Amino acid sequence: MIPHYVDIPGFEIVVIGGGGDLATRKILPALFAHHVSGHLSAGARVIAVSRRAIADPDPEHMWRQISPYVRHSDAADQFASFFERISFVQADATTADGSKRIVAALDPSEQVRRVFYLATAPAIFGPVCAALSGAGGVHANAAVVLEKPLGHDLESSRAINDAVGEVFAEEQIFRIDHYLGKETVQNLMVLRFANAIFERIWRADDIDHVQITAAETIGVGTRGQYYDHAGALRDMVQNHLLQLLCLVAMEPPSSLEPDAVRDEKLKVLRSLRPITGGDVDSHTVRGRYEQGAVQGEVVPGYHEEAGVDPARDTETFVSIRAHVDNWRWSGVPFFLRTGKRLWERRTEIVIQFKRVPHNLFRDGAGPQVGNRLVIRVQPDEGIELHMLTKIPGPGGMKHRRAPLNLSFASTFGEDLPDAYERLLMDLVRGKSTLFMRRDEVEAAWSWCEPISQRWAQTGQPAKSYVAGTSGPVASADLVNEVGRVWNEDDE
Ligand code: BG6
After folding, report:
1. Phi and psi (nearest 5°) for 217?
2. What percentage of the chain reaches a pLDDT higher than 70?
C-alpha cells in the first residue's frame, strides 16, 4: 500500500492552470484522496493559479466540479477542510507582474518544499519558468512538473527542455508520464525482479513475442483541438507505450535509484531498431475512426468531433511492429498498438512464450501454443498466466488453455490509488524514479520522428476503422503476416 506522508513538514503545490481540465480531473482529486487518507500534514497547501478568475471559489461549487473524479466520493463532508488548504491566485504566470503575485502568495521559507505544476500548454513552459525565476520564486527546494506533450517533435522538445533547464537543474525537473504511476506498471519491476521464475526465461530464447496494447473506448472528447495536432503516435506511443516497452525490455538495474532505472530504460530506447523510409509503410499502421457503436452506444466519426479539422488527416490509431536490437531480445517482435473508440478499454502487456520443443500429445489433443503471461494494466488490474492443462475426466490427454489469475482487487481490495496520487507525493519528496529524464524523452522522440515524417511525406491517408472495432484490418495483418495474432483474436 502507499506509504504515509504525514512526516513531510509542509509543501506547496502551485498549479499553473489551476482551473483547467487536468487540475479538475487529476491533480485536485489526487490531493483530496491524500487528505482523506490523512497523509497530508497541516502545512500542505495548494495554490491554484488561473489567468481567468476562478468562478465562485466556494467549496460546494468546487466539489460539484471535482467529485466525479475523486476516489472517495463518499467523503464529501471532508471537502470543506481540504478546501481550506487551497488559495486562489488570478495571474498570467508568463508575465513579471503575474509571477510576482504568485510568489507573494507563497511561504518564503526554503524549508517548505515548493512544487510548480505546469498544467498548461507546453509552449509556455519556458516563459513561465523564466517569469517565476525573475520574480524570485525558484529556490533550491523548488521543483517543476511538466505535463506531456513535451513538444511536438525532437526539436521542439529540446527547445522546451533548454528553456526550462535555464531555470531549474535536471534533478528539479519532473516530467510526468502518468502510466509510470499505475500500480500494475510499477508491479512490472516486482514481477520481473523479485520472482526468479520469470527473469530466467525473460529473453529471446523463451519469448516468442510481446504485445503492448492501450485500447480506449473514449473519443477525443473536449480535447479535439489539442489531439488534432498530436495524433495517437505523439499522444500515446512516444510516451506511455514506449515507457511500458522499456520496463518490459530493460536489464535489471543496479538499484531502484532514479538514475539506475532510467539508465536502463534509456538503453532500451537506444536499442530500438529505427523504423525509417519504406520500413515505415511495412511496420506501422495508422487509422482513424468512423462513426460506429462502442459498447452499444452510437458515436460520431473523428471528423465530426468538436475542434477537429477534417483536412488534417490525424490518426486516432497506431500499431507498430518494433524490434529491440540487443542480446536479450534479438529476433523478438514487439507489437505496439493504441487507439481511441476501440471495442473495449483494455491496456495490457502480453508476453507470449515459445512452445515446448516437442509435442508428446496426439494431434487434436489440445492447442499447440506456448504459455502466455498477460499483465492487465487496466481495468481489472492483475496478472494472468495461461497454462495448458488436462481437461479432467476421460478423454485421454485432452487439454486446453486455462489461466492462473491474480486479481489485484480480490487480493488487495478494490480501492487502488490513482497514478497521480503516487506521482504527486513522489515529487513532493523529490523521488524521481517514476519520472522521465530529459535524455529518455529525447530518445523516444528520435525514434518516433522518422515514422511521423514518412507518414507526412507519403501522404498516405489514415486507414479508416469503424468505432467499436479493434482498428483497421491492416493492424491484424501487421501481426498475422509474421505468424502471430493479437491477443483478443486468440482468447
Ligand atoms: C493521456 C492522453 O496521456 O492518456 C489521452 O493524452 C489518453 O489521450 C490518456 O486518453 C489515457 O490515460 P489512461 O490513464 O486513461 O489510460
Report:
1. -95, -20
2. 97
Q: 236 CA distance to ligand 1 centroid (A)?
A: 7
What is the distance between the alpha carbons of residues 188 and 159, in angstroms, rounded to a whole number?
Answer: 33
Q: Give the nearest ligand 1 atom to 226 CA.
A: 6
Pocket residue to mutate for ligand 1, from 220, 240, 289, most atoms within 8 A of Cβ: 240
3-state secondary structure the chain: CCCCCCCCCCEEEEEECCCCHHHHHHHHHHHHHHHHCCCCCCCCEEEEEECCCCCCCCHHHHHHHHHHHCCCCCCHHHHHHHHCCEEEEECCCCCHHHHHHHHHCCCCCCCCEEEEEECCCHHHHHHHHHHHHHCCCCCCCEEEEECCCCCCCHHHHHHHHHHHHCCCCHHHEEECCHHHHCHHHHHHHHHHHCCHHHHCCCCCCCEEEEEEEEECCCCCCCCHHHHHHHHHHHHHHHHHHHHHHHHHHCCCCCCCCHHHHHHHHHHHHHHECCCCCHHHHHHEEEEEEECEEECCEEECCHHHCCCCCHHHCCCCEEEEEEEECCCCCCCCEEEEEEECCECCCEEEEEEEECCCCCCCCCCCCCCCCCCEEEEEEECCCEEEEEEEEECCCCCCCCEEEEEEEEEHHHHHCCCCCCHHHHHHHHHHHCCCCCCECHHHHHHHHHHHHHHHHHHHHHCCCCEEEECCECCCHHHHHHHHCCCCCCHHHHC
Cα–ligand 1 centroid distance for 240 (angstroms): 9
User: Active site includes 303?
Assistant: no
Mean pLDDT of 42-53: 90
> Is the CB of 216 within 6 Å of ligand 1?
yes
The active-site residue out of 240, 283, 303, 386 is 240
Residue 447 CA to chain centroid, in angstroms?
Answer: 18
Q: Is the C-beta atom of 426 inside 6 A of ligand 1?
A: no
Please report the pLDDT score of residue 416 as a whole number. Answer: 79
Q: Which atom of ligand 1 lies closest to the CA of 148? A: 3
How does the average pLDDT of the chain come out, rounded? Answer: 92
Domains of the chain: 10-147 (3.40.50.720), 180-418+441-490 (3.30.360.10)
17 Cα: distance to centroid of ligand 1 (angstroms)? 18
Q: Over the Cα atoms of the chain, what is R_g?
A: 24
The answer on pLDDT for 337 being more than 80 is: yes
Q: How far is Cα 10 from Cα 163, in angstroms, rounded to an integer? A: 29
pLDDT at 3 over 50: no
Nearest CA to ligand 1 atom 13: 179
Q: Given the CA of residue 220, which atom of ligand 1 is nearest to it?
A: 8
- Give the pLDDT mean for 140-163: 93
